Amino acid sequence: MKKLAIITSHPIQYYAPWFRYLAALSDLSIRVFYLWDFGITQKADHGFQQAIQWDIPLLTGYDHEFVPNISSSPGTHHFWGLYNPTLNSRVRAYAPDVVLLMNYNYVSLYQFLASWHDTPILFRGDSHRLVPERGLKAWLRQQWIRQVFRRFDGVLYVGQANYDYFRAHGVPSDRLFFSPHAIDNERFSSEHATAHEQAQQWKQELGIPSHHRVILFAGKLIPKKRPNDLLEAFLEAKLPNTSLLLVGSGALEPELRSRAASHDHVFFAPFQNQSLMPRTYAIADVFVLPSYGGGETWGLAVNEAMCLAKPIIVSNHVGCASDLVEQGQNGWIFPAGDTGALKRCLQEALSDRNLLIQQGEQSLHKIQHYSYSQVTTGLRQALSQLGILSKPEDEHKLYIQQSYS
Asked: What EC number(s) does its UniProt record assign (predicted)?
């Protein structure tokens, strides 16, 4: 059995179920090396501006260890936040056949890349260049990234925009393998019926009229997510029998509450932990992610909403837009920052309840192709090309045979 070492920043609710999936494979043994313990203990989240701890199991079902982090300010919000001097020796003691990095732009990971020569290294990332950067500083950064990517023997990409990003930074197409972003579809789907029952009660608790359709935003109330654009578009759209629900917390919350104070059909709900997310999406008739800039590298909330059969409205700066949202089929894509265009999307979406239902069904069908099975197929193809695993079995050749080249 071949051994895979996975190095990542901290336990993440989207990755832990994938690690359990990998651990169940008969020809691959994994160990996950965590560089920080955020998510499993109460710690401040800079985006949500509160201490959080995920309420679903993140460490069960797979082998893992925490590498001591001696940073004076641990976290992923700055370069020195992951400082783990014993990382190399810990990984070497495991004696892996291959290493997969899920991050690189931290001091510990640069040190690892500079000194690790024992086995091939893979990388899985999700950055994009949907918002072009210009100027000398941007050019120098691109040249540096090109050099970093030359260090990897294979790269897993999550979607179209991410593929284009890697190609723009010099990664050859034959070293790129499609390993799409996915969530625990099985958990969300299994809670579908219960979530809708809970959502009706929650709707009543929030004070949203029972006959109102609900436009949902769920996430950090921070500038890059642009919840203020959604609020402005909603107020201008003047939609009958419709409420806007903003779920989450963050730096923009006071401003949003102030702007919405004189409007009857704008509602707020606090941060919802993972066990409540199916209910959170179930309350919606349409989900909106209006992010602006290069920071929304994918938008896994879209995957979650689609698992609850919801139509989607996203800006064209959202990394998953071209992969998950088909205009007129399961949602709408609008130019980022254009509140007039977002208003028109809302008006079209809320003009026909049957249309919303049909588009939600299309979302549910489409998201089945973004599962941990498909994520794993891309990884296995990379390992096969490196000669670490035999060619993927037939059951691993599902959706990923497509190519963006």
From this structure: 2.4.-.-
DSSP states of 288-327: EE---STT-SS-HHHHHHHHTT--EEEETTSTTHHHH--B
Q: Which residue carries 């056949």 as its tokens?
A: 97
Give 240's DSSP letter. Answer: T
Helix, strand, coil percent values for the chain (each to nearest 5): 40, 20, 40
**Which residue segments constitute the domains of the chain, with CATH numbers given?**
2-184+369-401 (3.40.50.2000), 185-367 (3.40.50.2000)
How many Cβ atoms are within 10 Å of 152's Cβ, its own excluded?
A: 23
Q: In angstroms, rounded to a whole number, what is the distance separating the alpha carbons of residues 305 and 321?
A: 14
pLDDT computed for residue 133 by the predictor: 86
- Local confidence band at 43 (pLDDT 50, 70, 90 cut-offs): low
Q: Do residues 345 and 332 make contact, with C-beta atoms less than 8 angstroms apart?
A: yes
Higher confidence at residue 158 or residue 401? Answer: 158
pLDDT of residue 49: 65
For 293-306, the pLDDT digits (tens) are 999 999 999 999 99
Radius of gyration of the chain (CA): 21
